[in-house]
Amino acid sequence: MVIKKNIKNNQSKIINNQLIRIAPLLLLTILAGCKARQLARPTPQMDIEPQFWVRVLLLDDVTDCTLKIASPFSVINFDPLRGGVRNYFDRVNVPLRAEMSASTITIAGQPLTSSEAIIFPGAPYIFNLNGDDYRGKLKLVINPDGSSFDAVNLVPLEPYLAGVVGAEMPDYWEPAALKAQAIAARTYCLYIKKRFGGNRAWDVRKTQASQVYLGVRAESAQIWDAVNRTYGHVLVCKHRDGTEDIFPAYYSSICGGYTEDSKHVFGDSFEALVARRCPYCKDVAKHRFFYWPTVQFDKAYVTARLLQRYPKLKQLGEITNIVPARQSKYGKFSRLTLVKLVGSNGKSDFLRAEDFRLTIDPSGRKLQSTVCQVVNMGDKWEFLAGIGYGHGVGMCQCGAQGMARKGETAEQILFHYYRGSKIVRVY
Predict the structure, then answer these.
(1) At what angle do helices 175-196 and 410-417 cross, to 10 degrees?
(2) How many domains in the chain?
(3) Is residue 106 part of a domain?
(4) Which pTM value belongs to this model?
């Protein structure tokens, strides 16, 4: 019994000594686990030239929003009498309400002294707007009627792209496809900014009306790798005046077998945006998206939507017939590009098929493409035998993934879909 007791006492001493040695390590581990979670990647390009910042419309015509910033931040007012006035806030990680009050924006109850202000977070230069994190700065602009405001994200081009590529493609897709997407998205953004940004307070929307932008939540290591490996690269092609310049590098989810000439869909014409055969997307796209199901819309609804969007069509009365006016045919593949609308009074007018599609179904999720047949079903219009997803111009995203799976590079993918284009660096 004495021997057993001594053994037991020795074991207890050993265990106690081991606990004494590892206790500091356990304490450090616990303390480390209690630290606030840090965003690992700081926002790059905060000192880039102004022409490479992007103004993204996040909120349009709103009366309030909620801000939360994980670092001290400043708000710069543009007072016509005193110039830029900077106010500092140190309420870190606390929800703050920005709202309209008597034609003035207030932040946490503090009124701004001008019709616009820029919220500038400290490093890592990230702010949270209505629950979503974005990089860069936030600009609030009161609309002319004084009853609402817009929220515009001012963000450098490369971090903007990290929020686009991860929203437009799954990050587990092939690196070559992701890099092709990054170059196409960078090109598209710079073209739209140059073409339209000068006439409005923003360059692009965050929705598919431009290209989808989800901010920080779209980012991942794979996405940043694709963005960084294509840093500053854009596509150019020859324009009508003989110069080489960027162009709207459109892309869509699933072309269905052939891409389409831009002039037939958007009305613009570029050497690089012509129809191209795509045998690749069918092997990548899910069956229910490649072949979309039959969809019906009430005729009264169709007429109401068209007349609301295009007042000139009111001269037709009720839309009684929809006739294919122009189709692009590639063997058995046929894409409707122009429709003839016939009214109850016998008059008719024409509309680009893509405009017709997105007027009837702004989401584009039911009437997925114009590769379909239109059938008169009495009090309804039926769209059947649908193929593809999106407008079909430029790069087919599922096709890009299909090419990448076969070992094609990002350059080969881009040169296939944007014929005659070149890749250059803008910085």
Answers:
(1) 50
(2) 2
(3) yes
(4) 0.88
